[in-house]
Description:
By secondary structure, this protein is of the alpha+beta class.
Amino acid sequence: xxxxxxxxxxxxxxxxxxxxxxxxxxxxxxxxxxxxxxxxxxxxxxxxxxxxxxxxxxxxxxxxxxxxxxxxxxxxxxxxxxxxxxxxxxxxxxxxxxxxxxxxxxxxxxxxxxxxxxxxxxxxxxxxxxxxxxxxxxxxxxxxxxxxxxxxxxxxxxxxxxxxxxxxxxxxxxxxxxxxxxxxxxxxxxxxxxxxxxxxxxxxxxxxxxxxxxxxxxxxxxxxxxxxxxxxxxxxxxxxxxxxxxxxxxxxxxxxxxxxxxxxxxxxxxxxxxxxxxxxxxxxxxxxxxxxxxxxxxxxxxxxxxxxxxxxxxxxxxxxxxxxxxxxxxxxxxxxxxxxxxxxxxxxxxxxxxxxxxxxxxxxxxxxxxxxxxxxxxxxxxxxxxxxxxxxxxxxxxxxxxxxxxxxxxxxxxxxxxxxxxxxxxxxxxxxxxxxxxxxxxxxxxxxxxxxxxxxxxxxxxxxxxxxxxxxxxxxxxxxxxxxxxxxxxxxxxxxxxxxxxxxxxxxxxxxxxxxxxxxxxxxxxxxxxxxxxxxxxxxxxxxxxxxxxxxxxxxxxxxxxxxxxxxxxxxxxxxx
Length: 577
């Protein structure tokens, strides 16, 4: 018995030593891999491509195509490759620099670009919250705590604007946001969600049920699970300008029966824009319509779509309500109140059978397109990446696994054969490369909503960025045209100019049926919370003539490839003539 026990003890000691040795080896290997990855990021991460790496230059439009010859599957840099910015100075004539080589060459840079993209996706968070920190000091906790109330997301009492900040939400932040939009009450739920309205919820809850701490403010209560902590914002509103955020929409022909078209109205002697806007804001309507001394409140509808404005002279030529002539025409203003008919969103109840991509080059308006699609369909969009800044602002599909099939479509900037063929169909969003490059450069240095400084534009980073990313803009479209199974090509410029017709095409492509009123609501909320604000860059030309020559050749290549696949070519406004 003792002998057997001794053998067992000896065996266990050997196993213990073996496990210790394997653990040490595993940790050493992981450390070496981490050090190697860090060195690569430090060397390459801050630039789209190293200064000594050559980039392809298109030879001409006569050889445009998207079929890749077998002989070019493994291209090697030839003697005609130019180095750094010198690549912009003369067109290469070697066959390796044709569009066929471009697609293959860009696959070598894809991993490098992914590192760059993910690095700045994670780094941009502090930049975007800088403005919030400044606001936090001024948006102090004002108003009165009204109590804890029940909250049903499907039948909300606070039906006004809805905001999310899943990392930095505070009571003051919510109150300030609601006050700017002329609401009387601010309600917080789940520690991170802010709801606005002018009517208190009817059903009160026990105080202890509102026990969720605000994500950005320790010690403050921000509701709970299906519970709202409601605060009044009267004190904040008292100091605000009465006409704040009121936007003139234009002069329009009045509908035949205004009382049937608009659910609320007011007749007032010496009616002003401020009076009408304040009245409609309290009623929680996004439109204030003035005809003479009559004020009407409502939404854009099929009977009053705001699509066909008329000459301002028909409304007396100015924006004073007292001078509006009445009769056949009326003045229309956008109140601070949000149109809530299209703000409800959810995940798909069953997994989608069709896996759809929303593909674009970075800076082509993918986030804006997602905003439009989510509000038009009522379903969240997913993402191949995880952008914490977008998730914190309400894009809940960011955190869902991109292959879960619970979202209506999935954002991606990828363009490799394997990545493309994973999707059953795709909406391919294309934007003017000049605008795309500038938008992505702004995002790199100032986040989704800011602008890069003059110092950034005049640094060496900008020409390096153009040198690398201009070719990616072209190869992204070419590869999706080649490998995409079912495509809907949407041009950013067309979507911006003709929002509802183009959005209808996108929604039909996604096999979702929506009402006309919902699309009009999307149009009313078209900018969302992701329109760039702040100080724009100064009026100077960031593109040199060499850059323009390079980008124009890529534009002609993509234009010809689109026509070769029976799609309409690029918008004529930026195709070189």
